[in-house]
What we know:
Layout: H1 3-18, H2 20-48, H3 53-80, H4 88-115, H5 124-142, H6 151-177, H7 183-217
Helix pairs in contact: 2-3, 2-4, 2-5, 3-4, 4-7, 5-6, 5-7, 6-7
Amino acid sequence: MSADRRLRRFVRAWDDLRGRSGRRIVDLVLGQIAVARAGAVLARSVAEGTIERSAARVQMAEVEHEGDAERAELVRVLRRVLATPIDREDLFRLSRSIDDVLDHLRDYVRETDLFGPKDLGFAVEPLQAVIDGLDELEAAVDKIIDDPGSVTRAVLATRKACSRVRQLYQTRLAELFAGPLEMDTLRRRELLSRLDAVGRRLGEAADALADAMLKRSH
């Protein structure tokens, strides 16, 4: 082993002992959540009609690229560090689920442009619930190192937001099927299903973090 390689390994080990690598990993997960939130805000803007759908697709492609870069950096760091603030497998699950949230938001924005109905107002509340859930997840992740005892409460708040997405999905679907069955009905149903998928992926991220904190407490 070369002297430079030994030095790099020593530096990584020293950073692990001082807790720096743990903070670095947490910050990278927070970066992923921030990008997913930006995607959710963009999707909500589409639903509110404050941005054209074609323009939103272009912006979402940029957001997705940023999210991919954040995840790639997290994976790279996880492969190099000796110690992680929570279980390594749970970190991968958490990161993957956040990435899935962004992927479904990307698909939602694309589908609004491809075949979405003229009025997307029905999607505003579910998307706001997604944003609220991401905010709670961000708060939970940020406390992993300095205040691990409060992470579970923030995770529960994330799950509550996910339940809100699900409830809104069911309510909007019932309202939709109470009216005449038209092509617009099918379009709205597809978009509602996509938003429900966003909420489920966000719930999986919360579950991954909850599992990790349970392991850490034992």
